[in-house]
Amino acid sequence: MTSLKTALPLVAAMSLAAPAWSQTDPSDWEAVTAAAEGQTVYWHAWGGSTATNDFIAWIGDKVAEEHGVTLEHVKLSDTGDAVTRVLSEKQAGADEDGAVDLIWINGPNFAAMKEAELLFGPFAEALPNWQYVDVDGKTVQTDFTVSTDGYEAPWAMAQVVFMHDTADLEAPLPSAESILEWAQANPGRFTYPQPPDFLGTTFLKQTLIELTDDNEILSKPESEADFQAVTAPLWDYLDALTPVLWRQGQAYPSTGPAQLQLMADEEIDLAISFSPGEASTAIANNQLQPSVRTFVLEDGTLGNASFVAIPYNSGSKEGAMVVANALMSPEAQLRAQDPDILGYGTVLSMEKLPEADRAAFEALDLGVATLSPAELGTVQPEPHPSWMTRIGQEWIERYGVVQ
Amino acid sequence: MLGPVAAGLAGTLIPAFGYLPAAGLTEWSLDPFRSLLEWPGLVPAMRLSITTGLLATMLSLAAVTLLFAGWSGTRAFRLLERLLSPLLSVPHAAMAFGLAFLIAPSGWISRALSPWVTGWERPPDLLIVQDGWGLAMVAGLVAKEMPFLMLMGLAAMGQADATRRMRVAQAAGYGRVTGWLKTVFPAIYAQIRLPVYVVLAYSMSVVDVALILGPSTPPPLSVQVVRWMADPDLAMRLTASAAAMVQLGLVVAALLLWRCGEWAVARIGLAWIARGGRGRSADQLLRPLGVVAGGFSALTVLGGIACLAVWSLAGFWGFPDALPQGLDLRSWARHGPSAWGSAGDTALIAAISTGLALFLVIGCLETEYRRGRALTQAGLWLVYLPLVVPQIAFLPGLQTLFLTFGLTAGMVPVITAHLVFVLPYVFLSLGDPWRAWEPQNGVVARALGTSPAGVLWRIRLPMLIRPILTATAVGIAVSVGQYLPTLLAGGGRVATLTTEAVALASGGDRRAIGVYGVAQTMAAMIPFAAALLIPTLLWRNRRGMHG
Q1: Residue B459: DSSP 8-state
Q2: B396: pLDDT strictly greater than 70
Q3: Are A140 and A158 in contact (CB under 8 A)?
Q4: Which of B484, B487, B502, B515 best tests the A interface by mutation, with the highest count of A CBs <10 A?
Q5: In chain B, which end has fewer C-beta atoms inside a 10 angstrom radius, N or C?
Q6: Do B353 and B476 touch, CB atoms closer than 8 A?
Q7: Are strands A152-159 and A146-147 parallel, antiparallel or unpaired?
Q8: Which runs of E-coded beta strand occur in A230-341?
Q9: Of A46, A91, A397, the CB nearest to B21
Q10: How many whole angstroms separate alpha carbon B517 and alpha carbon B96?
Q11: How far apart are CA B8 and CA A142, in angstroms?
């Protein structure tokens, strides 16, 4: 597709954006909190999860109490809507006090906004709670291999797990090959969200990592590799899998939550998730049957971090930084990891935490369907974002237009 | 209307040729169209848009016509008429969601019959929802468009002199259905022609219903436009704009096709009328068919709402349980307060934008009447353009226009954006009944010494109170249902029931969707109920006013 030619310079040629203008130096925290007092922060974040919405409301109460910052959650159905807004503002020359103060953002959106100089920063590593962040053990300074350079602050860790209904599929499946074998023996009981949905493409990447011999090549842009040769095992695999998928691959659930609903409706027995605690939280919320458990593949699964970023034209950058800092606080991280509330993995390092906080994390019951950090095993790094784009397009051409 | 429409279209047209400076893309080219042509799903997606749109429009028009022909004036018809307001006020997305749950292999019907009838311990792997032909989507659209066309037809009936025409036809020995088709239908269709066009354009470019009920491999073109528009790669917005222009072309082509069809039907119909067949035996077949069609629409939409209501109260509800394991108010306690909070803003925006639209439309129609000159064809197209252009492609351009005028966020831009979409619907609901008003009434009043303003205020507006209230209700329902205009123009700072509902729906949490779907329905239902009730009360002693 032609878009590839135009997309590559956007994502790949990472010229460093000049630091955007700001009233307050992020490293002068006292000045930041003083300026933040009384500000209203409009946080544009996906609003599809009741559990996340409740957590964001709790963060809002916390920053209001501690710093006098009012947090308004703008519930999006797609992060792209917030990007559109900032883009339109830049187009119209509205460079001050834009509508968006904070965005919950993921890899490709971040890469595109950073490249188009739509972000404020660097700020993340100047925040006080950055001292607790696990910079060595977790991928908090790169987002899909793109360096964050302090333009976004991490607030949750995600890792691929597979959810299985133990009433129908008792034992974990150790590899992509065994998933295929099981699917062939049980046709119509497995599916994945339709690419280019984020989770659907994640399934493709996870399978590619499983099937390919050389994972090193995936960390470089796909243009430097022989794309067809590297991905051939993936397409062979999908050719075998598609006829035994739910609805024979003629229809797919549109998103991760839609896929979760299929599991609750007993239509499928196996599903992919990007949050190790999602199953436990869904069981607690009556959204999933209590017989669901999770597993990871023997060779490890993909992992990455969720971030927040501040648009270049936010009028409440200080307030937004206060919120980003509050999200990284031990108290908020502990709450986010509680499966009854959110079940998201923490971005903090246990060694760096004060004794009391560490004890609280250790005492946390991770929930009936959540694996312990040790059981989660090896975390595989994300491939370069160009792979995600290209695999998504290739998938559409092969399986997305079957009629 | 010229300003917003032109800006919106320019905002679509220019990126379609590769120019989007905010994303650093400043090279004019045909690449967006080339990349669109390289998308292998283009032909099937275009075909789907056309077939589902035409099929849904034909079926809903045919069903409404049969219902009117066979049953207007009867008690059964009045019952359906009363059911209409809840039917119309159910938001499209909520209805689609309810319908999907009703007919899916793991849905309510299947649950109710399993395992004792079907023997299913687990849902069968059947492609019912999201079928490749888009039939589930057509069913959803027909169920939802029928009440709209019926309401438009009811508003037109008063000005079509239906009772007298039918009396003459029946005196001449015509059957009920045949007589109605031959004598009343031509007068009614002339008045509801534009609403039918809108149904066609809407069915072809609908996004939310298509997302829930339509096929996805590939989806109809409109859904793909939205996907590209939301793509993280900003360059894909150019492809989206190009696709939106193609979509616009498709809609225009389908409208032309429909126009040709009208002409053909008129020719054939004239010959059929001239032959003078009385068609008495047709009644036995066609009358029940009309009731089945009306019942389908009512049951589908009400069944969908019932699904939503039950889910809003449900504990865990697995297959094949016919009802949830427990009922509780947890979901209402969780979402109720914020739904109540956004209901206030929703009502305020709907009231102001509909009030403005009514003022403008009546002003425009009255000017047209006094000058004796109808709005030109080009002018009509301008008014209706916002309904024909896919919203997602049109709105970013509109948003840029607002920002240029310093309308950055908040209520004013939201109300303005709503006006762009409410105005055409109000114009469309009111225009034909307004023009069909018997001008002799005005001539008589003038002869008795009333001023033109007096004629308007004391004769015309009271006589047209039913279509005016109907137009108001339609306007409010349209405003309540707006998602993208509210989100984009309001900068996310104005939360209505619909913005909250769509955000939650993206997460697929049926309980949350249930709460908001029920709340949304209530918000739109009250004005419709009023539109039916108020004229009845006002005219309880004016027999001639009950069309």
Answers
A1: I
A2: no
A3: no
A4: B487
A5: N
A6: no
A7: unpaired
A8: 270-273, 292-295, 301-309
A9: A91
A10: 11
A11: 38
Q: Which residue has the tokens 């966020």?
A: B409
Higher-scoring residue by pLDDT: A63, A75 = A63
User: Mind giving me the DSSP string for B226-280?
Assistant: HHHHT-SSTTHHHHHHHHHHHHHHHHHHHHHHHHHHHHHHHHHHHHHHHHT----
Contact A3 B22 (CB under 8 A): no
- Looking at residue A368, its pLDDT comes to 86
Q: Please report residues of B whose CB lies closer than 8 A to that of A96.
A: none
Contact present, A370 and A339 (Cβ < 8 Å): yes
CA B111 to chain centre: 31
**Closest CA–CA distance from residue A188 to any residue of chain B (Å):** 6
Residue bearing the bigger pLDDT, B498 or B221 = B221
Residues 6+ apart with CB under 8 A from B110: B104, B118, B120, B123, B319, B320
CB neighbours of B66 closer than 8 A, spacing ≥ 6? Answer: B177, B286, B289, B290, B293
* pLDDT recorded at residue A403: 56
Please judge whether A74 and B404 are an interchain contact, meaning their C-beta atoms are less than 8 angstroms apart: no
Of B125, B234, B318, the CB nearest to A247: B125
C-alpha distance from A91 to closest chain B C-alpha (Å)? 5
Alpha carbon B542 to chain centroid, angstroms: 32
Collect all residues of chain B within an 8 Å Cβ-Cβ radius of residue A307. none
C-beta separation of A146 from A14 below 8 A: yes
Measure in Å the smallest separation between the Cα of A203 and chain B Cα atoms: 18
Q: How many Å apart are CA B193 and CA B259, to the nearest integer?
A: 10
> What are the residues whose beta carbons fall under 8 Å from the beta carbon of B287, sequence distance 6 or more?
B70, B71, B176, B177
Work out the pLDDT band at A324, boundaries 50, 70, 90. Answer: very high
Give rounded-to-5 percent helix, strand, coil for chain A: 45, 15, 40
Q: Which residues of A341-376 are buried (b: 16+ CB within 10 A; e: fewer)?
A: bbbbbbbbbeeebeeebbeeeeeeebbebbbeeeeb
The proportion of chain B whose per-residue pLDDT surpasses 90, expressed as a percent, equals: 19
Per DSSP bridges, beta strands A301-309 and A379-380 are parallel
Q: Are residues A75 and B499, on separate chains, in Cβ contact within 8 Å?
A: yes
Looking at residue A122, its pLDDT comes to: 94
Minimum-distance CB partner of B234 among A48, A72, A116:
A116
* Chain A interface disruption, residue of B17, B231, B312, most A CBs within 10 A: B231
pLDDT tens-digit profile of B140-183? 999 989 988 988 888 777 667 788 888 888 888 888 889 899 99
| Residue A84: exposure state from Cβ atoms within 10 A (0-12, 13-18, ≥19) | buried
Which chain A residue lies closest to B127 (C-alpha atoms)?
A247
- How much is the pTM? 0.81
User: Longest Cα pair distance anywhere in chain A, in angstroms?
Assistant: 63
Q: Is B109 on the interface with A (CB under 8 A)?
A: no
Compute the average pLDDT of residues A187-212. Answer: 92
Q: Which residues of B touch A9 (CB under 8 A)?
A: none
Q: How far apart are CA A23 and CA A317, in angstroms?
A: 9
What is d(CA B486, CA B130) in angstroms, rounded to the nearest whole number? 28
Residue B547 has pLDDT above 60, yes or no: no
Q: Is the pLDDT of residue B275 over 70?
A: yes
Per-residue model confidence (pLDDT) at position A192: 96
Of A1, A257, A397, the CB nearest to B507: A257
Contact B232 A109 (CB under 8 A): yes
Contact B512 A109 (CB under 8 A): no
